[in-house]
Amino acid sequence: MTDATQTYTSTHADLPGLMGLMTGDEKHGPAATSTLDVLWVLYHRVLRVSPESRDDPGRDRFLLSKGHGPMAYYAVLAAKGFVPVEWLPGFGSYDSPLGHHPDRTLVPGAEIGSGSLGHGLPIAVGTALGLRAQGLHEPRVWTLVGDAELDEGSNHEAIAFAGPAGLDRLHTVVVDNSSARYARPGGIAARFEAAGWSALTVDGRDHEALYTAFTAPHPGRPHVVVARVEPKSA
Fold this sequence. Notes:
Blueprint: H1 15-20, H2 29-33, H3 36-46, E1 61-64, H4 71-79, H5 120-133, E2 141-146, H6 153-162, E3 170-176, H7 188-194, E4 198-203, H8 207-214, E5 223-228
Parallel strand pairs: 1-2, 2-3, 3-5, 4-5
């Protein structure tokens, strides 16, 4: 597994239509749309995982910590063939596998059940440690968190541990839509850099900038990309 998989023919332009199939209450629309471009670039150009390889020990792992707004995630998974498009209109209904929070036992390709903030990055640290202990040095671990999620102390324990541990297969994307309650001196990237991480801040709607940041070398260190998007409006 050396390259990101691009087996399916859906394009970024198809994503709004796929998201539009999901209706009902409690959609957390802004939380979802803030992540759409990050998710697309990851699944389209970076992650080494496909519907056929989702159980392969050598796959990349993607952990959606920002799981309370999964519409964009489901749309990208459908675009890439992990879940049937026919599932989307049932989003959030009683008998649908696509809940308001993703469930790893129901959603093909989902690595964790998520939605309660502050869990994804610590789980990603444990995943990276587990892969290292098994001698699996090729798989990369990615997690997507929101800026407000960094108000949770569990993330800071994970950040403080991962840098000195040299978890260079660990990658974090922070989608910054100005939701955080507490400011950080120097910004979000500075917090990670202080713990020994490689850090870049880019426009979260610019696909080329995202790809360049996602694939930047960071030998011996975990890597974080802060993806800035428009402030949350609702």
